[in-house]
What does this fold into?
Amino acid sequence: MKRLIYILSVVIILCSCQKSNEDKAKEIVKQHLKENLNDWNSYEPISLSPLDSVFSVMEIDPDIIAAESKLKLFDRPFSLSTSMLETWKEDTVKYAKAYKEELSNWKMLNDSVFYYKSIVDSLKSNYQPRFEGFIIRHKYRANNENGVKLLYDVNFYLDILLSSVVDSDKK
It folds into this structure.
């Protein structure tokens, strides 16, 4: 029984010694500021938001962007080909050869547009946001390059492993 209590207390102590994700994020941000501020000694923390997760967004997903750009490559020529066919359709005797060539071109373009449109639609309908990392908002005062103390409000984006700041943007 004493041995069980001893083992449980050791496990509890070991588990409680690990830093929380929030603490890791604060340390990473502080280290990032230490390395990048003009005057670290002027740094005055004001507030830190709770750590939050960042997920990918469909509008900037590289696979969807690539498929949409392929679709755009074919969409304009397809529209142009469609309007040419409509114009030449009125006088098929005069434009018979051109109409026939453009019709085969239109069929290829139509297939390509349909193909890429179905890919884009499929990617969008099956889109699952991916975990990209973390975000923490930090308000602080620090001297700028001219020695003037300014108030900063910055979002810091952290990697998945909470090991570094990958980006930041001022509010």
